Amino acid sequence: MPSIHDHITGHLDPSGRGLLPGGDELPDAQIDHRRGGGLVPWSDGTALTHHPADVTTDLPALVAAAVTGGDHEPLYTALCEREVLAELDEVLAGVRALDLAGPVHDLGRRLATESEHRAPVKFGIALLGLGADSGDVEVLLRLGRHEEFTLFAFAAVEATQADPEPALLALADGVEGWGRIGVVERLGDQTGPRLREWLLRGGFRNTVQDGYLAHRAATVGGLVPALSVPEVDDELLDAAADILCALIEGGPAEDIDDYADAPIALSLLVGHLTRRAHGLRHFVATARVDEFLAGPDWDRRYAAGWDLTRHDTLVRGCRDLMAEPRWRDLTLADLDSTDDRTFHDACYAAAVLGIDRFPATMRRVRTDATPADWAGLLAQATEERLPDILDIASDVLPLADLGTGPDDIAGIGARWTDHAVLDVVVTALREFPGQGVEFVLTSLRCPVVRNRVMAVRTLTGWGPESWQPDVQSALRSAVAAEPDPTVRESMAQLLTH
C-alpha cells in the first residue's frame, strides 16, 4: 500500500486546486477507523466516543521511545488503534515536555510522509506543528490538498511560520469543500490583506454551501469598504452579489440579519447593479434582494436599525431594474446553456418572469444531469407531465444495475450519482400514488440505505390501497434481506397496514 503522502502527491491537480479523479479516496479507505483508517460505517457512533483515558500519558512515552531508541512500531500501532485526536492538545503538551525538538520534528516528518494510515499522518502533521521549518511547508501544503488533512496543515503552518499568510492562502485556495470552510472559519481580525482580498473576491465560494462563509467574507473581507467606491470591477460586483444573496438565503451559518452592515451593503450593491448590470446573474441577484425586501419580519428589522426610507428606495431600485425588457431574451437564451450556474440562474429568472422552464429542463436531463437538475424537473411535475419525465428517467437510469441488493452503504460521492438521482425520483413519486412503481421497487433493493428509506416513505405516503400486487411480495422479500434493523422494522410495519 502506498503512503498517503505519495498517493496525494500523485493525484495533485495541476491547476493548483483539489485532486485528480481517484485522489479523494485514500489507500486506507477500507480500513476501520478504529485501526487508523477511514472506514466509518454510517450508523456507527464510536468515532466520536472512543477516547481511551490513558492516551495522554502513553503516547508521549511512545514518542520518546521512537526518537531515542528507534522503535517506531509501538507508536505507529498505538496511533492506528486509538482515537487520539480529541486529546491532541494534551498529548502534544506531553511531547513538548520531552525537550527533544529536533528528533520529534524528524519523527513528525517521517509519519507525515511515510505513513499508510491517515491517523499517523495527522499525528505527524501535529508534531510538525511543534516546530516546522520552511522546508516542511511544501509537505504540509501537499497533504493539505486532501480535505482530511487541511485543518491539521493549517494549524501547523499558523503555529510555526513567521509570515504564514502566503502558505495559508495557498492552503485555503487549494481546496474547495469542508477544508476551505474550516480554514476560513479560523480567519480572524489579524488576517492579512491578501487573504482578505481573496476571501472577498471568491474565497467564500465552496462546494458545500456558500452560506457557510458569506458572513466571513462580508465582515473579514470588508465588503462595505470595497463597495464604497464609484466603480467596481466585474469580479467584485459578482462576488458581492453572491455574498449578499447567500446571506439572504440563510441556512447553516450567520444570515443577513446577523450582518450589521446589511442595509448599507445592499444599498451599495443595488446602486452598482443599477448602473452596470449586464448579465442574467445580476438580474437574479436583484430579484433575490427584491424577494427579501418584500418578505416578512420588517417590524423587527426597523427596530434593529433598518429605516423605512432606505427600504422603500431599495424596493423601487430593484423593481425598476427588473422591469427592463432585456432580461426576458437573456433568460430564454440561457435556458439552453450547458453551464450549471448559468442554467440555474436562467431557471430562477424564468420563474420570476413567468416563463415556462419545463421544456428546457427536460432537454437538460436527457444529458449528463445532476441530482439537482432532476429535483428542479420533478418540482415542475404534474399528472400530465409525469409520464414523460419517467420515460426519460427510464432511459438514463440503469435500474437493473442499481437494485443489486441491500447493504450498509451511505452512497456519498460521484460513483453514487445514479442512486442519488433515483432517490430524487422516488421522493417526488410520493405525490403520485401508484405511478413509477418500478423506480420504487428498485429503490427498495438498493445497497444505499437512503434509497431504501425513501422507498418505504413513498410507499407509506401512497397507502396500501394504491399498491400494485407485486408491491406486497417485494416488501416481504425486502424485510427478509434488510440488514439495518431500523429500516427492516419500518418495512415490516408497512406490511401490517
Quick structural gist:
With 497 residues, the protein is an all-alpha fold. The protein is built from 29 helices and no strands. Helix 19 packs across helix 20 and helix 21 (358-365) runs antiparallel to helix 22 (371-378).
Tell me about this structure.
The protein has 29 helices and no strands. The protein is mainly alpha-helical and 497 residues long. Helices cover 61% and strands 0% of the residues.
Key features?
497 residues, mainly alpha, 0% strand, 29 helices, 61% helix
Gross geometry = flat
SSE ordering:
HHHHHHHHHHHHHHHHHHHHHHHHHHHHH
Strand content: under 5%
Number of DSSP E strands: 0
Compute the separation of the termini in Å. Answer: 52 Å
User: Which structural class do the helices and strands define?
Assistant: mainly alpha
Percent of residues in helices comes to 55-70%
Name the poorly predicted regions: 40-53
Average pLDDT number? 93
Q: How many helical elements?
A: 29
Give the biggest sheet: none
Radius of gyration: 27 Å
